[in-house]
Amino acid sequence: MPDRRNTLVNTALLGLLVLATIISLATGTVQVSLFDTLRALAGHADPMTDFVINELRLSRVIAGLLSGAALAMAGCLMQTLARNRLATPGIIGIDNAATAFAVASVVGVGLSLAPSAMALAGAAAATAIAFGLAGANGTRGYRFIVAGIGIGAIAGAVTQVMLSRVAIDAANAAYPWTVGSLNARSGQSVLVLGLGLAAGYLILMSLSRALNTLQFTDAVAIALGTRLKATRIIGLGLAVMLTGLAVSVCGPVGLIALLAPELARALCRPGKVPLTAAALAGASFMLVADLLGRTLFAPLEIPVGIITAIVGSPYLLWILLRPSPRSLT
């Protein structure tokens, strides 16, 4: 039987996401009314409006929707697996490693794979190293987080070294990958992200009961019939996949994976892993941040990763300074 509170929360977040999508499509250097925006989406607008909405803005909005949802779901998964609110892909270095590998592909340092494939490889490598350094604790405890922070710092340094040793044109082409941006994203990468997000979501929904039990101790989870090792491996693999695919589209957009799950947990009924609510909140956060970056200082555009860092950093400090809830360390 569906939970009424969670259903209401998901419905409200979906409504906010639809509103944010329409406003983002309508707002920019060329202002379009909400009515004309809807007409353009239905294919009944004049050629100029149709070009602005469907050719210039729609692909960017779709990239923001998918990448924000993927990062938020990955963050929610990592927090659940580690039982720690700080265990998000950005904080434990997965974002930076994926970015380093993607940049290596863009600037051409002898690696010819597509940025999406390279980002996935980087995310997987960072997770494997952090997991190995954590030892018997696996993804649990602060050792995993500290190892991830160190890996992220190294990956960030490697990215800067690569950018400093290539021609200025190549460095400029790779720059958006280092700060997080939705500008001129590859349609192929967005398509791959969409397929990966859909597949990951379906798998996670089938594992929802097992994921809910991971919020308890291992003994309780096993007593409830959860196959801990298999659930953790699948969950970690999906978190890596979602992060790598999202970074291949938008770069390292920080703190979406922290803010969206926090909002979802605050709104939804305790005891559940709010993957759907987190995905909807993450997509909304990404669109709003991108909208602010495009319009606050127009015609100058601020990359979405910088906006999320400015907004999310004070909240991260607040999490570090306040007492933690019992459900997550």
Write a concise keyword list for the protein shown above.
329 residues; mainly alpha; ABC transporter involved in vitamin B12 uptake, BtuC; 14 helices; ABC_BtuC-like; ABC_transptr_permease_BtuC
In short:
The chain has helices spanning 4-26, 34-41, 47-82, 94-107, 115-134, 142-164, 168-179, 187-206, 208-213, 218-223, 228-250, 256-267, 275-295, 304-321. It has 329 residues and is mostly helical.
Describe it.
With 329 residues, the chain is an all-alpha fold. It has a single domain, classed as ABC transporter involved in vitamin B12 uptake, BtuC, CATH 1.10.3470. The protein contains 14 helices and no strands. Helix 2 crosses helix 3. The protein is globular.
SSE blueprint and pairings:
Layout: H1 4-26, H2 34-41, H3 47-82, H4 94-107, H5 115-134, H6 142-164, H7 168-179, H8 187-206, H9 208-213, H10 218-223, H11 228-250, H12 256-267, H13 275-295, H14 304-321
CATH topology type: ABC transporter involved in vitamin B12 uptake, BtuC
Residue share in helix: over 70%
Q: What global shape is seen?
A: globular
Per CATH, the architecture is Orthogonal Bundle
Question: What gap, in angstroms, lies between the N and C termini?
Answer: 30 Å
Task: Outline the biggest β-sheet.
Answer: none
- Structural class from helices and strands? mainly alpha
How many DSSP H or I helices? Answer: 14
**How many discrete domains?**
1
CATH superfamily descriptor: ABC transporter involved in vitamin B12 uptake, BtuC
Detail the poorly predicted runs: none
Strand count: 0
CATH top level label: Mainly Alpha
Give the rounded overall mean pLDDT. Answer: 83
Secondary-structure element order, as H and E? Answer: HHHHHHHHHHHHHH
The share of residues in extended strands comes to under 5%
Membrane topology: Multi-pass membrane protein
Organism: Marinobacter nauticus (strain ATCC 700491 / DSM 11845 / VT8) (Marinobacter aquaeolei)
InterPro entries: ABC_BtuC-like (IPR037294), ABC_transptr_permease_BtuC (IPR000522)
Protein name: Transport system permease protein
